[in-house]
Every structure is written in structure tokens, then in C-alpha cells.
Design brief:
By secondary structure, the protein is of the alpha/beta class. Helices cover about 45% and strands about 15% of the residues. The two termini are about 15 Å apart. Bound molecules: pyridoxal-5'-phosphate (PLP).
Length: about 230
């Protein structure tokens, strides 16, 4: 199967999963994580209707985004301060912000570019040492600090669930949803109105994430890998 066929299959499955738990299909955005593939596979998914793509390295973002100006490009990788100008120049949404000093630099760079940068705060809900992100305890203050920056708009939270353990993944998704609700209740009304996104769920666990309230799922291998088996 090619990326266009697999994209359509996953997009249909996402819509069906929404309906199965009483949510509207347009309540969940499917981000096609193209970090392992070149522009040909991106073009195939684009032809099949994909308009949201995810990249985890600034160089790949810079290389691919200008070729697909109608698509929305999501930055989902580790943020290095010196790469923030490249990220802000191309990113529709940054999913992986968890340091206040990076938020402050994003704000300065976005101001220079005349844009307001949408961001999500990444939270390490499971507490695994291998995962990055703010702790659930740190997240409320970080969201509040981001909300105070004029050229940053904090849209919600993101997490990576433990892999290979469906029960632990579901716990992480539920934990992120509950944390977002608690944070939202503390935000001023205008900031709370923008704080609506939950980016959670990848190839192996996106159905559980949708059942727990994901508004964005980030799917790579199930769309772009020839060898992926459900
Ligand atoms: C690679 C990646 C994904 C996609 O993972 P798959 O298992 O290939 O679907 C999602 N989110 C982040 C942050 C990633 O780095």
C-alpha cells in the first residue's frame, strides 16, 4: 500500500472512532507525522487529503514546509533555543514546549515575524525518565507564563504515552485530559477559550486517545511505513 491509501484508511478509521464514542469526526485532527519520509510520500498523503503534517527536526521542517504552503506544519520534536527562529518561521503549532525560557524566545521571535505562535505545553504524565515534558505539577505555572506572553497563544497540552502498555497509555491520556481541565478552570475566560487542544495518540494507541478526548492525533508509521502492522 502507498501513503495515499494508508492515509485514507487511517482518516476513515479516525472518523469512525469519533462516531463510536459520540464525538463529531471534525472534533479530531489527524496529523500525518512525515518525519521518516521524503517529499514524495508527503505529496501522496497530501493528494489523499492530508493537510496537517508533523516534523520533529527543524531541518526537515525547513526543507518540507515551503513545498506545501497550503498544509499546516506541526513541530513535535525537541526544541533547541538556537533553532527557534526556523521553527517559528514554519510551524502552525508547536506541540513540544516545556521550558519557560523557550516560550520567552518564541514570543520574541514571533513578535519580529509579526505572528502569534500557537503552542501546546508538553507534559510527561507517565513520569518515564526517557520522556521529556513538564511534570504535571509544573504544567499549570508554565501555561500561565505562556498565557502572559503577547505573541504566544497557548492552545492546550500534549503528551507521549508509554509504548507497549495499553493500560498505562490510557492512564496517561486520562491524566492529560484531567490536567487540561483543571488548568483551563484557572485561566481567564479569553485564555480558557483558546485552551482547547489535547494532542495525544500515535500509531499504536490513537483510538484510546480519541476515547479519552484527544483533539489531535499524531500518526506516523501507520500512514508512512510499508511494514506497519496494526
Ligand atoms: C514520531 C512521533 C509520532 C508518530 O509516531 P508513530 O508511532 O510513528 O505513529 C508522534 N509524536 C511524536 C512526538 C513523535 O516523535
Amino acid at each position: 500500500m502507498e501513503a495515499n491509501t494508508r492515509y485514507r484508511l487511517v482518516a476513515d478509521e479516525v472518523a469512525a472512532a469519533c462516531e463510536a464514542c459520540g464525538r463529531a469526526p471534525e472534533a479530531v485532527r489527524l496529523v500525518a507525522v512525515s518525519k521518516t519520509v521524503g517529499p514524495e510520500a508527503v505529496a501522496a498523503a497530501y493528494e489523499a487529503g492530508a493537510r496537517d503534517f508533523g516534523e520533529n527536526r527543524p531541518d526537515s521542517l525547513v526543507a518540507k514546509a515551503p513545498a506545501f504552503p497550503e498544509a499546516r506544519w506541526h513541530f513535535i520534536g525537541n526544541i533547541q533555543s538556537r533553532r527557534i527562529p526556523d521553527i517559528v518561521a514554519h510551524a502552525h503549532l508547536i506541540h513540544s514546549l516545556y521550558q519557560q525560557r523557550h516560550a520567552e524566545k518564541i514570543d520574541r521571535v514571533a513578535a519580529e515575524l509579526g505572528k502569534v505562535q500557537d503552542v501546546l505545553v508538553e507534559v510527561n504524565v507517565s513520569g518515564e525518565a526517557s520522556k521529556s515534558g513538564a511534570t504535571p505539577d509544573e504544567a499549570p505555572a508554565l501555561v500561565a507564563a505562556c498565557a502572559a506572553l503577547p505573541h504566544v497563544r497557548v492552545r492546550g497540552l500534549m503528551t507521549m504515552a508509554p509504548q507497549g502498555d495499553p493500560a498505562a497509555a490510557t492512564d496517561a491520556f486520562r491524566g492529560l485530559a484531567a490536567l487540561a481541565e483543571a488548568i483551563r478552570a484557572q485561566l481567564p475566560p479569553d485564555k480558557a477559550a483558546a485552551f482547547t487542544e489535547l494532542s495525544m495518540g500515535m500509531s499504536d494507541d490513537w483510538p484510546a486517545a480519541i476515547a479519552c478526548g484527544a483533539t489531535i492525533v499524531r500518526v506516523g508509521r501507520a500512514i508512512f511505513s510499508d511494514s506497519y502492522q496494526e
